């Protein structure tokens, strides 16, 4: 059977639609050009009418009569003068055309003198890195044309470079990290210090795009984030790095910000986290934020190696199994955590072999949060005990199938004191506070695409989840609510997220003893003789004990 051809409108309809759309666009442009004077006059008439209405409303009521009489007199004089209406119409149209003109400032054709000098100095600084003696037509040369090397540029209000596109020769070794680092350091120094720059290398097009990053929000307090079980918000980052936003509340306003979400649980590829930073960089704030989010769906064991009471607000709360700050308590808690991990593994394995779902007591997440565990390493060595970090091997190695998550926070200088399982199994990494590019690369495993700066607010740093990209990070403000220096608004935000206090299992309380009842006093025995009264103590009849014979060998 022969196939019938498609109708012509279906076979070449797309071409006709494209041609019709182009004709309509051309006609609209032509009509706009032709009617531009009329559009300008109409805009001017609207502005003149608005100005007259505003003048009428601003005029007091007792003067409006005189204003109407003056307007009527002007109209009468114009009507009686020869060619008056024609001249009035011409004057009105001229005024409307003047008022309806485009008042947007015209863009400058190029940079001013100071901006040109800045671009020239930057071009001259790049000549030693982007030039070669064998190049017959060098793009970079002393005294060369900088406009060919910088096709796109932009400046901020202070006159510093805010965006720049740099062209470089094809023989530059842009595939080497050291060569890139030299260029990035030079551009950051010449464009202005104290700002964070983002570098995008286009190896195929031999172009480097430099952009200035805006500061991350530091005013977002701890709150209930819109996440599911197994998702933890570490902080917030740039909108260009993630494709998800979370609604957060700041005061009475609500806005959407891009988060850094860490996923834990059975299907997580980064089940444990390591956070490092300088003193005062915000690692304890990060642990408090994680603890408040973990308590929504699981239990928490906290080890405070700092000994400053940063986690006292969590003591005795529902879901907080222990908050330990002593060596003996820390060892006992970590031993229990290792045993609990083994128990969960055995119970889940038996359920899998029997073809049953895992027991409910193995599904509830267990979080082990350790702040400065290396402090107990020195104490244990001095006391002749084993390092408490050695008890983390079982939760670290087998914690993912048992729903056990380990979070370790320590100082950046103490990374060498961490045991090998901690460094090996914590694939999610966070670095807070000032750090060099070498330190960031050694901890995160990859250099950031931004230039680190020396002065950072608390909770500001970088994060990398597994083999993913390096994100800028700002931890939510989660300070210690018992600290006197904490603002009242942040204290209330943290206290509102705390679970209630844990009640006794039997629900009973010890009744207070009634002082009015006569309680018989115990009779002293020979093994426990009655204590003698202190000399000089006043004797009162109510406090005088009854005369009770004491048994001795002579009697």
In short:
By secondary structure, the protein is an alpha/beta fold.
How would you explain this protein's 3D organization?
The chain is α/β, with parallel strands linked by helices and 555 residues long. It is 36% helix and 16% strand. It is built from 15 helices and 16 strands. An 8-stranded mixed β-sheet has the order 11-10-12-13-9-14-15-16, with helices on both faces. It has a 4-stranded antiparallel β-sheet with strand order 1-2-4-3, covered by helices on one side. Strand 3 (197-202) and strand 4 (207-212) form a beta hairpin. The radius of gyration is 39 Å and the shape is extended. The model is unreliable at 505-555 (pLDDT under 50). Keywords: ATP-binding, Membrane, Nucleotide-binding, Transmembrane, Transmembrane helix. Residues 257-441 form the FtsK domain. The chain crosses the membrane at residues 65-98.
Task: Provide keyphrases for this structure.
16 strands; eight-stranded mixed sheet; four-stranded antiparallel sheet; extended; disordered C terminus; 555 residues; 15 helices; alpha/beta
């Amino acid at each position: 059977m022969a196939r019938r051809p498609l109708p012509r409108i279906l076979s070449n309809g797309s071409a006709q639609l494209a041609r019709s759309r182009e004709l309509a666009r051309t006609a609209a442009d032509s009509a706009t050009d032709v009617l531009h004077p009329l559009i300008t006059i109409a805009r001017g008439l609207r502005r003149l009418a608005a100005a007259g209405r505003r003048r009428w409303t601003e005029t007091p009521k007792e003067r409006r009569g005189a204003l109407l009489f003056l307007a009527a007199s002007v109209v009468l004089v114009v009507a009686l003068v020869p060619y008056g209406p024609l001249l009035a119409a011409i004057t009105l149209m001229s005024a409307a055309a003047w008022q309806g003109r485009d008042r947007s400032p015209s863009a400058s054709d190029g940079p001013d003198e100071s901006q040109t000098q800045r671009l020239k100095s930057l071009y001259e600084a790049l000549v030693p890195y982007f030039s070669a003696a064998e190049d017959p037509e060098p793009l970079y040369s002393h005294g060369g044309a900088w406009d060919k090397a910088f096709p796109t540029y932009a400046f901020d209000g202070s006159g510093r470079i805010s965006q720049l596109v740099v062209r470089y020769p094809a023989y530059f070794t842009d595939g080497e990290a050291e060569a890139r680092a030299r260029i990035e350091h030079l551009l950051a120094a010449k464009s202005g210090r104290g700002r964070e720059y983002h570098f995008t290398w286009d190896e195929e097009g031999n172009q480097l795009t430099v952009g200035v990053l805006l500061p991350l929000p530091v005013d977002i307090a701890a709150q209930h984030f819109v996440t599911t079980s197994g998702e933890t918000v570490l902080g917030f980052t740039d909108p260009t790095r993630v494709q998800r936003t979370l609604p957060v509340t700041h005061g009475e306003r609500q806005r959407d910000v891009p988060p850094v979400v860490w996923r834990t649980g059975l299907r997580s590829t980064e089940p444990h986290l390591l956070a490092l930073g300088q003193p005062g960089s915000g690692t304890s704030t990060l642990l408090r934020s994680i603890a408040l989010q973990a308590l929504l769906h699981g239990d928490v064991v906290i080890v405070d190696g700092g000994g400053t009471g940063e986690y006292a607000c969590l003591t005795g709360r529902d879901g907080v199994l222990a908050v330990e700050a002593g060596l003996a308590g820390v060892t006992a808690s970590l031993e229990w955590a290792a045993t609990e991990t083994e128990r969960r593994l055995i119970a889940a394995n038996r359920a899998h072999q029997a073809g049953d779902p895992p027991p409910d007591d193995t599904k509830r997440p267990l979080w082990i949060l350790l702040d400065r565990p290396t402090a107990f390493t020195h104490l244990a060595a001095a006391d002749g005990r084993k390092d408490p970090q050695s008890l983390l091997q079982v939760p670290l190695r087998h914690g993912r199938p048992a729903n056990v998550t380990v979070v370790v926070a320590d100082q950046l200088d103490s990374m060498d004191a961490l045991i090998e399982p901690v460094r090996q199994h914590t694939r999610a990494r966070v670095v807070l506070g000032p750090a060099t590019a070498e330190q960031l690369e050694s901890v995160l495993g990859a250099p950031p695409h931004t230039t680190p700066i020396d002065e950072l607010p608390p909770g500001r740093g970088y994060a990398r989840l597994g083999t993913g990209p390096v994100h800028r990070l700002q931890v939510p403000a989660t300070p210690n609510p018992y600290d006197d220096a904490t603002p009242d608004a942040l204290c209330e935000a943290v206290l509102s997220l705390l679970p209630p206090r844990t009640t006794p299992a039997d629900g009973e309380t010890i009744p207070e003893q009634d002082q009015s009842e006569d309680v018989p006093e115990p009779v002293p025995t020979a093994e426990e003789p009655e204590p003698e009264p202190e000399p000089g103590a006043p004797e009162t009849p109510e406090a005088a004990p009854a005369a009770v014979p004491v048994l001795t060998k002579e009697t």
